[in-house]
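> Could you send the BTB/POZ domain-containing protein KCTD12 prediction when you get a chance?

Sure thing. Input:
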Amino acid sequence: MADAPPEVLELNVGGVHYATTRDTLLREPDSLPAAALNDPDHPRDARGRIFFDRDGVLFRYVLDYLRDGGLVLPECFREHKRLAREAKHYRLAGLEHAVRDADPRPPNRERGCITVGYRGSFAFGRDGLADVKFRKLSRILVCGKVTLCRDVFGETLNESRDPDHGLADRYTSRFFLKHSFIEQAFDMLQEQGFKLTASCGSGTAGGAAELKPGVDSEENRWNHYNEFVFVRE
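Output:
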């Protein structure tokens, strides 16, 4: 004789409704969902659904953990601390540890802002506009708290123009990078958990200035300055 289908239960978590089985809620016997299922005095809503006064959206990950015994989060997920708190409330130690391990941000990592800027132009060949090449950068500037800048850019950071390089707990606008690859700078910021929050750009009125020896007039006309603000929360 075939086994009877599992009993389907409905939950109300902060106003968000879920459907699951009795076996799923009992997967972790010491958890709050299992205790609520066996407690006739646990709060229920007007339709008799087991009620938890918690974050209804984050409960989807709690329920997934009870179903599958593992944790899978979207790539853009940023609420690790909140989910870890929910896991602790539901007495799911395995989920709490999994959430903390999945958090890409070290627990004591310093928050802050770094601004990256560069002055550039476009490299032209002998045929002028007909032979235009990719952008030409003279230097990538780095501004921010010294400890943050060193943490992100490491050995690629040039501190030779900074007169106070013996002091760490301060801010500076005199750092620049030893290379001229703006995408490499962006990759290093992204790997350290920084997000781009703002940017701006403008021309530098190079066409009106007197040219320095060896400077191409066409390249000088296309001079521009761009700045990007990155924040780590």
